[in-house]
Amino acid sequence: MKSAVSVAAGIAVLSASALAQPVEEPFFKGKTITIAVGAPPGGTLDPYARLMQKFLGARIPGSPNIVVTNVPGASSNVLARQIYAAAPKDGTMIGAVFHGVAVEPLIGQGDQRGFDPGKFSWLGSSHPEIAACAVRADLNVKAPADFLTQEVVLGSTSPGSPPFDFPTIANRILGTKFKMVTGYGGGQAMMLALERREVDGLCIAWSTVKTHLPDILRGKAHARVIAQSEMEGTPEFIEAGVPTLASLAKTQEDREALAFFFGPNAFGGPFILPPGVPQERVALLRKAFNEVFADKEAAAEAQRLNIDWAPLSGEEVQRRVETIYAAAPQVIARVKAALAPPK
To answer: Taking burial as the number of CB atoms within 10 A of a residue's CB, which of 71, 136, 237, 264 is the most buried?
Structure first.
């Protein structure tokens, strides 16, 4: 039997050997992570990326520098293609994109070869993106049913964007009479057009409406919300008595098409990594995002900025994307056809 002295000596040798081994530094130490935003500065996505810039770095081993850049175009699809094909596959490039990126290859009208959403690593989403249809307070429109009989001129961005696609779906599936005026650069421009009475209304992200007209649900604004997206409605709108546009659906097929179209709204502010990032690094970044999502100071910052903050984890967003891609082919085909430009 070895003596206690020899055992102790062996432990000492092992300890010295372990101390002699270099400690691997965290991958991100001394590096910069870029969060690229698929929208203009000051737009709907921008404040979420800036909030992440403030809180994310300290939660990643190595405390990397975080910078934000803007790559607007085609409702984040320009950025999605760049992230998919050209971004470094090491976690140093993160995309902040509109939720429509998740279904673009299924229902988009352009070249669908640019990216496969199922191959992105989804890091999480900061908030749901519920759409609100708001009209000027002096307009004789009181309820969603009025959209079936009265033409309402909406400010809009280009086809393929939520402010265009949502009313288009409503027109072709529900029979509403929205008329879109395109060419506005984003939510701020559309809100200004409404204020100037250039248009009757708009159907855009509720977060944008609420930011610009915080008192709109209390009847203290020059516009009022007539309808919301979603199938069942969200608590804030239910409490305010705002009905869903889906209440106009006449058939089960109509409801299935709307449910598919509204599916990505649950993750309105998703963050993505390109294919090929090592899974252990994906897990590390998802953990860091979840820590920011759970941070009370980050939530308070979101409240100060008057932006919605109801995060979903990366795992949950990934699951929802998979569910969307499991939809029945006839449902996908109907929504795609409804979004097709007139021949």
So the answer is: 264
Residue-wise pLDDT for 249-290, tens only, equals 999 999 999 999 999 999 988 999 999 999 999 999 999 999
pTM above 0.85, yes or no: no
Distance CA 97, CA 271 (A): 6
The domain total for the chain is 2
* CATH number, residue 217: 3.40.190.10
Sign of CA dihedral 314, 319, 324, 329: positive
Contact (Cβ atoms closer than 8 angstroms) between residue 55 and residue 292: yes
Query: What would the pLDDT profile of 161-185 be if each residue is shown by its tens digit?
Result: 888 999 999 999 999 999 999 988 8
Evaluate whether residue 210 is within a structural domain. yes
Instruction: Collect all residues with Cβ–Cβ distance below 8 Å to 132 and sequence separation of at least 6.
Output: 203, 204, 205, 206, 209, 225, 227, 228, 229, 237, 242
- Could you give phi then psi for residue 315, rounded to 5 degrees? -60, -40
Residue 76 pLDDT exceeds 60: yes
Domain-terminating residue out of 220, 243, 263: 263
Q: How many residues does the chain have?
A: 343
Q: What are phi and psi of 181, to 5 degrees?
A: -110, 110
Same domain, 319 and 281: yes
Which residues span the domain enclosing 222? 131-263
Domain with 101 in it: what CATH number?
3.40.190.150
- Per residue in 289-308, is it b (16+ CB within 10 Å) or e — as a string? bbebbeeeebbebbeeeebb
Ranges of H-type helices in the chain: 4-20, 46-55, 77-86, 104-107, 162-169, 187-195, 206-212, 235-240, 252-262, 279-293, 296-304, 314-325, 329-339
